[in-house]
């Protein structure tokens, strides 16, 4: 994917640019587009934009394109980009900020299931202190009634699930991790903090 840059000034949303700079503290204004982050990013090959392109788009105020992009949801928070950046740009902080902003607006069509997937994942971790794969699959299926009508996909998933079960890769019942209560308390505290921040706005 190439971003076309012409010699006319970009008429972007400068409020969006300002908001991202203030909320993320990611120092994206230091970026000089060396492309190092994109070369090391393990998901860039499969997404619409590379990390350096997202930075350029934020600085240009391209709010809609940024908040609907695949990369902000497919970013694995692996920190490879931040570790290699010569200017200490903190791209993971940027991606976190953009995901929060995207949730408040309208995530792109191609990624609409991903925010729901995060919610299901976190709910299970909150209750078990770890992921429970079967519960996660069932939660995802329940959130997509149209998918339940796809008999072929259900049969394929069932066959795959059975193979995993035979190899002891899929537990029927959930297992709580040691100290799961601490994880639950931590998530609760974060939720309360977020709620109080929302109320003071
Ligand atoms: S590595 Fe750093 S300076 Fe280079 S393009 Fe990426 S964010 Fe910008
Ligand atoms: S943190 Fe995200 S953007 Fe950076 S290299 Fe990893 S997946 Fe790519």
Q: What is the total domain count?
A: 2
The quaternary state of the protein chains shown equals single chain
**What would the principal axes of the Cα set say about the shape?**
globular
Q: What's the rounded overall pLDDT mean?
A: 87
What is the class of the largest domain in the CATH system? Mainly Alpha
Percent in strands: under 5%
* Fourth CATH level, the homologous superfamily of the largest domain: Alpha-helical ferredoxin
**Helical residue percent?**
55-70%
The computed structural class is mainly alpha
> Which ranges are low-confidence, i.e. pLDDT below 50, for 5 or more consecutive residues?
none
Q: What is the tally of beta strands?
A: 0
**Number of DSSP helices?**
12
As a whole number of angstroms, the C-alpha radius of gyration is 20 Å
Largest sheet: number of strands, sense, barrel closure: none
H/E topology pattern? HHHHHHHHHHHH
Distance between the termini: 38 Å
What is the CATH topology descriptor of the largest domain? Answer: Fumarate Reductase Iron-sulfur Protein, Chain B, domain 2
Catalogue the ligands.
Answer: iron/sulfur cluster
- The CATH architecture of the largest domain is Orthogonal Bundle
